[in-house]
C-alpha cells in the first residue's frame, strides 16, 4: 500500500523509540490487519454519535492518553490543520480494541501535527503560515484536554527525528 508512505515512515520511527504498551498506531502507520483506526470520543460511551475523529498515533502513560499524533500527507490548508486539532480538543476518551476496549482518558495531552512539505515550492509561505497557526493554537486559553500543540514538518522529522522524539518523551 503506497498511499500512506509517510504514515508508514513515521510509524516506523515511533516503533523504534516507544514500547508496544505505550504506543497505539493506526493501520496506515503499520499496514497491519485487521485495519484498525484510533477513534476519539466525546464521552465514555462508545457510539457513532460520540465518535469525533480518528487519529494516526497515540502515546499512553499511566493509563492516560498523553500524546496525539496526526500526519497530514496532503492538503496543508488552515481548515484541515485546525479541524483535526479542534475535533481532538473536543474529545475526552480514546477507545481502541488493542487496549481491550477500555476507555482511556485524555489528560494534559500534547497534540503533534506532522505536515508534508515535500511537494511545496521553494518560495512558498506554507511554513510561515504553519508556524503562525501553531502559535495561535498555543495562545488559545482553553484547548480542552490538550495542553500543548506542536507542528513538525515531515522532511525535518525524516532528516532528524531526535527533536520529535525528545518532545514526545517529555510528555510521557
Secondary structure elements and pairings:
Layout: H1 5-17, E1 23-25, E2 38-41, E3 51-55, E4 57-61, E5 64-72, H2 78-90, E6 93-94, E7 104-115, H3 126-139, E8 146-153, H4 154-159, H5 162-171
Parallel strand pairs: 5-7, 7-8
Antiparallel strand pairs: 1-4, 2-3, 2-6, 4-5, 6-7
General description of the model:
This protein has 172 residues and is an alpha+beta fold. Helix content is 33%, strand content 28%. Strands 1, 2, 3, 4, 5, 6, 7 and 8 form an eight-stranded mixed sheet that branches. Strand 4 and strand 5 (64-72) form a beta hairpin. The model has no long low-confidence stretch (mean pLDDT 91).
Label the overall shape: globular
Q: What oligomeric state is this?
A: single chain
CATH-derived topology: Restriction Endonuclease
Order of helices and strands: HEEEEEHEEHEHH
Contiguous helical run count: 5
| Count of all domains | 1
Mean pLDDT: 91
Main sheet overview: 8 strands, mixed
Beta percentage is 25-35%
Considering the chains and any ligands shown, give keywords for the structure.
single chain, 172 residues, Restriction Endonuclease, 8-stranded mixed sheet, 5 helices, globular
Amino acid at each position: 500500500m503506497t498511499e500512506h508512505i509517510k504514515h508508514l515512515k513515521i510509524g516506523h520511527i515511533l516503533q523504534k523509540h516507544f514500547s508496544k504498551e505505550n504506543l497505539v498506531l493506526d493501520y496506515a502507520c503499520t499496514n497491519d490487519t485487521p485495519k484498525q483506526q484510533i477513534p476519539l470520543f466525546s464521552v465514555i460511551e462508545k457510539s457513532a454519535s460520540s465518535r469525533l475523529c480518528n487519529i494516526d498515533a497515540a502515546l499512553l502513560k499511566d493509563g492516560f492518553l498523553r500524546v496525539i499524533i496526526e500526519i497530514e500527507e496532503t492538503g496543508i490548508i488552515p481548515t484541515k490543520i485546525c479541524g483535526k486539532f479542534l475535533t481532538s480538543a473536543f474529545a475526552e476518551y480514546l477507545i481502541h480494541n488493542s487496549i481491550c476496549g477500555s476507555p482511556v482518558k485524555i489528560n494534559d495531552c500534547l497534540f503533534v501535527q506532522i505536515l508534508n512539505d515535500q511537494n511545496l515550492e521553494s518560495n512558498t509561505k506554507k511554513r510561515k503560515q504553519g508556524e503562525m497557526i501553531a502559535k495561535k493554537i498555543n495562545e488559545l486559553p482553553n484547548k480542552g484536554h490538550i495542553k500543548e500543540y506542536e507542528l513538525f514538518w515531515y522532511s525535518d522529522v525524516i532528516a532528524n527525528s531526535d527533536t520529535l522524539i525528545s518532545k514526545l518523551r517529555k510528555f510521557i
